């Protein structure tokens, strides 16, 4: 009997591919192990075993595999099942899910670039002959493709060797290098090994009696460390002992002191520290907890709808504790932006070393570590906090998923495939794993709230803030009138300036929100009306004053600010609109004494920049923090009494059926930063349009009203959650091709779906990175079988692919989202 495996290749193939294996291999292999396989003319890929069977493929002859790469599965069968769902629902291949789910180091293939790990100290005698050959080759040539290495050591099956070298930290893949950031190391000191005993120490101090400076260093070290052996940094020691770096170096050279480095960005929990007891819930939290548990007992997805600062996190903590008690794993999903050390520290406080963080900014090695700890159900990763991709970890005993800030749009991945929504995929994962799932938000998505209304989801509510702090008072400031009467100072109304002054005088802090980064969105010539455009994208360039640059926010193209208009030559360039940078500057001019900080993509680029700004605001080194949406999420500042929204209108005028919902959520979240701890906070919203329905609803804290309006609109215009949508995007450098391809596709769709096909239409930004884009939106009734519809669309795509004229046009699907 012949044996075969079907494997998942990490490329966009629609089907699994079959390879033949020997009987011995069949006995050894398990689903979820990796194998090295040949594919195409001469490529090697890392593939994942999905099925083991004895049926030969009918249309091609199965090739043999090169080699088995694992001793045990690295992926569970449940994951494969979940990935297939993701692939089929979001219309991509399971290979694409595989590729994005596992750390890059798991996916060696012939084109992968390999280089030496510059940070590792290699013990050459710990390497096998073959490993050494590779190592040596990389000493001479900085970077080699996997296939080149195969040629050098004259071996086809080079992946196992590279896999071992990766594990030994000797090499890196090029992808890892891109992802590498320099970890921030802090230098600590301790007493040398030899002087740990009291006798040895006594003798040491005696011997140093003639070196008073050195003995002062040693004594200072004792004082700093105290009884509980607190870790001491070199800097602390230098300051405390009033000595110099050179004296400490002398002591280190003499091996009296020993220095060591600890990375500060990896949130390591001090093992010696005792976890704190869980907080006692108040009656409202307690009630919510009971409702959640009752709903879990009915196996229902459950929504916790709790206003900002109502203490949702403490409720999550209770549920996590219960889950751990049962020996199960918990997953805490957050939008990337909310993944702050504030929250991580809070959870570590309760659960100590059981908390693992899975983050795209972490190195591949760290991600591999978390992967393996989750797979083997280690206590070190009982709780995983992570952004959307942590959904794809190999949980073996998942008991609870929490999707915090479930309404957040960053749970949706737009590029590349899989273009999935993490909340919705988490619900399916929970279903497959038979585990509980809680969605939490102060401003639930229309979808989730609709499911509650339909009784599909369970519901729990907390509608007052913890400690009975009142919800912030919201005031709309009509700047249309003020602008007309020329009573604005720059972009500030008198009302807002008064508010800032009053708060700062009380020793309180202020947050100012502006939904745009940069100094001013565009520069316009007042003579001819020209404004500089990005040569690659269909957008105007944005002016960044700090660097005196014009930048494209889509492709990072930039150029120096021109003195005069490029079109007409007149020196009449003027800025139009305004961003965070300008808000900061104007305010500084009006109130020179104010300590102002700014938080947006530009100021938080470095790895620690974000934390730094937050910390200095927390420590009250700043009076005012100006920022973009980054300010909205999961931050808990006790001393903020005023939140100012510079301009609410540019949020509302966004071409997306979710724009109003989003505006409500964003404004409610930003407002939620006001008055969390002590007294009632105040929110001032500047707008040209104070009678806008959404602004009225925000000021009345009328979530239900907003929901009802939105649901009616969606019903009328056939949008989710009442209808389903698929957006199909066509992309190519050639304008004409995009036009023709999308028109052909729309026509084919109309044969079956008639009026439910919208477009093709150019999006608001119709060219990005020199690629033209055009969209078709397909709307479906809820009861229309989704699988069939998708299969039909795919069929059209297959005919499309055979038309030579459309060659190279990319077809991209986004399900449920526009
Ligand atoms: P949310 O997540 O709903 O915005 P948090 O969980 O951050 O609210 O709670 C707001 C504040 O109230 C936090 O500072 C938190 O420590 C405090 N808090 C919440 N619940 C309790 C409790 N049961 N006992 C003591 N403090 C609490
Ligand atoms: Zn651009």
From TrEMBL:
Cofactor(s) the protein requires to work: Zn(2+)
GO term, biological process aspect, one: DNA replication initiation
UniProt binding sites for Zn(2+) 1: 525, 528, 565, 568
Domain Helicase ATP-binding: 293-462
Catalytic activity: ATP + H2O = ADP + phosphate + H(+); Couples ATP hydrolysis with the unwinding of duplex DNA by translocating in the 3'-5' direction
PROSITE patterns for the chain: HELICASE_ATP_BIND_1, HELICASE_CTER
Record-level Gene Ontology MF annotations: 3'-5' DNA helicase activity; ATP binding; ATP hydrolysis activity; DNA binding; zinc ion binding
Cofactor binding summary note: Binds 2 zinc ions per subunit.
Protein function: Initiates the restart of stalled replication forks, which reloads the replicative helicase on sites other than the origin of replication. Recognizes and binds to abandoned replication forks and remodels them to uncover a helicase loading site. Promotes assembly of the primosome at these replication forks.
EC number: 5.6.2.4
Protein family according to the UniProt entry: Belongs to the helicase family. PriA subfamily.
Entries under Pfam families matching the protein: DEAD, Helicase_C, PriA_3primeBD, PriA_C, Zn_ribbon_PriA
Gene: priA
UniProt keyword list: ATP-binding, DNA replication, DNA-binding, Helicase, Hydrolase, Isomerase, Metal-binding, Nucleotide-binding, Primosome, Zinc
SMART domains linked to this entry: DEXDc (SM00487), HELICc (SM00490)
Boundaries of every Helicase C-terminal domain copy: 560-714
Organism from which the protein derives: Cellulophaga fucicola
Gene Ontology CC entries for this record: primosome complex
Official protein name in the record: Replication restart protein PriA
Residues where Zn(2+) 2 binds: 534, 537, 552, 555
Source species, domain of life: Bacteria
Subunit text: Component of the replication restart primosome.
